Amino acid sequence: MDFDVLIIGGGPGGYVAAIRSAQLGMKTACVEMRSSLGGTCLNVGCIPSKALLDSSEHYADAKKKFAIHGVEIKELKLNLPQMMSRKTDVVNSLTQGIAGLFKKNGITSINGKAKLIGPGKIEVETEDGALIVKAKHIVIATGSVPANLPFIKVDEKQIVSSTGALSFEQVPKHLIVIGGGAIGLELGSVWLRLGAKVTVIEFMDRLAPLMDKQVSRELKRVLGKQGMIFHLKTKVTACDVSEDTIRLSAKNKNGASVEFEADKVLVAIGRNPFHEGLGLEKAGVNIDARGFIPVDKGFQTNLPGIYAIGDVIGGVMLAHKAEDEGIALAENLAGKAGHINYDVIPSIIYTWPEVATVGKSEEDLKEENTPYRSGQFSFKASARARCMEDTDGFVKILAHKETDRVLGVHIVGPRASDLIGEAVVAMEYQASSEDIARIIHAHPTLSEPIKEAAMAVEKRAIHS
Predict the structure, then answer these.
(1) What is the pLDDT of residue 328?
(2) Spatial contact of 263 and 256, defined as CB atoms under 8 Å apart
(3) Rounded Cα distance, 189 and 317, in Å
(4) Cis (ω within 30 of 0) for the bond into 353?
């Protein structure tokens, strides 16, 4: 079997690269070891977690918020099996959709484990035996796997990764989340809403440590108000598992020993690049000390004809980053000018309220000695947010003090994940805060706080 482009990995980066390659007239194949396409994101990551986040949000609203709107429910009941069934249906429909897109675009889908065996050549271990596949261009898009602590054994039953936390058969009595990043906070939110006690243990001094400090503080405040418990600057040092109890030992910020006990523990301390079994070292592909594959600006590894994209090359480990890298690579291979603007990749935490950021934080700008001005607007002053009864959070815009160019936008609030798109577009086209301030935003909408925050950069916000 001979192809122009062969992609190893059918996740967001891989399947998008395959589709774009095929659109551009290249004979394309994709090797995926799962039985379904979509990778971690679609099968056991972004999509099932968002399905549970939406379902659990409805349940929490019915329990606590509907009555404020005059909607009373006498006997509210959680049907966890139905919630899980819906999650599975969402995943299945989307994986089938990708398979349909492959068929539509004439992409050859190969189910099996790939291994590089020579220039332009791989061996795929399938159910029917070994298959040799050749291609002019080979793309590694194998993604990442959950990171772990050496003294904790993940069994996906009592101690789970993000995968196991998507499939509990009953609501935990007490769920301990090790890690205060996006994955831990999102999955912690799901089970908190459904009735679990949730404790988050974070090694750093704040939640979402890579985000703007003000965002981290606000996120801790609103999640704490919902009942989530936090132990920051705390390091887990040991784990003891019995039949129905997990005991964690840790050191707190003062160096004192502390103990935690729960029936479920979620380890969510990050992700590591995955390329096990690909035979990269034997083939001569460079791998750095952290396990990532170094690539040049065209995503080529040190070996001609072998490329890599997505989580496996490092940077922010986000599905949309991998997708755009897949498109850019396909366009480069076809002789077009594919590129990525890594300065405007949005990051989102799908708690409620949501968190969405793009660009520089205040800490980044201070460290770089970049002069800036800040404009902020609270959702408490938003008419639309007040009507929704969702007034937690704010929009903050950071603009260069001299040029007024927008350098960063940070949102904690309702539907922040959707609102951040306006900021990304503005920054992609090098807009100033005044540009955003002068754009007419419909009233009443959740996007108005973006306009007001932009106006606040020059201290001329109307509603605050």
Answers:
(1) 98
(2) no
(3) 21
(4) yes
CA pair distance 199, 188, nearest whole angstrom = 8
- Please determine whether the domains at 159-269 and 344-456 fall in the same fold group of CATH: no
Place of tokens 């906070």: 185
Cβ neighbors of 106 (< 8 A, separation 6 or more) are 22, 28
pTM: 0.96
- In the three-class reduction of DSSP (H, G, I as helix; E, B as strand; rest coil), residue 151 is classed as coil
User: How far, in whole angstroms, is CA 86 from its chain's centroid?
Assistant: 21
d(CA 446, CA 464): 15
Tokens 């996006």 identify what position?
182
Contacts of 432 (CB under 8 A, 6+ apart): 399, 403, 404, 405, 406
**Angle at 174 (CA atoms; ends 171, 179), nearest 5 degrees:** 105
- Say how far apart CA 390 and CA 382 lie, in whole Å: 9
Q: Catalytic pick from 58, 69, 339, 443? A: 443
Residues of the chain with pLDDT under 50: none
Superfamily of the domain at 344-456: FAD/NAD-linked reductase, C-terminal dimerisation domain (3.30.390.30)
Q: Indicate the CATH number for domain 159-269.
A: 3.50.50.60
Token readout for 366 is 């201070």
Does the annotation count 137 as an active-site position?
Answer: no
Q: What is the pLDDT of residues 241-256, one digit of tens each?
A: 998 999 999 999 999 9
**What are the backbone angles phi and psi of residue 354, rounded to the nearest 5°?**
-80, 160
Q: Which two tokens stand for residue 264?
A: 């479920």
- Residue 111: Cβ within 10 Å count: 17
> Residue 344, SS3?
helix
Q: What pLDDT does 437 receive?
A: 98
Give pLDDT, residue 79.
98
Q: Is 289 exposed, middle or buried (0-12, 13-18, 19+ CB in 10 A)?
A: exposed
What local confidence, expressed as pLDDT, does residue 234 receive?
98
Q: In the CATH scheme, what is the code of domain 2-146+272-340? A: 3.50.50.60
Q: Where are the domains of the chain?
A: 2-146+272-340, 159-269, 344-456
Distances, alpha carbon 29 to alpha carbons 113, 166, 169, 211, in Å: 14, 31, 38, 38
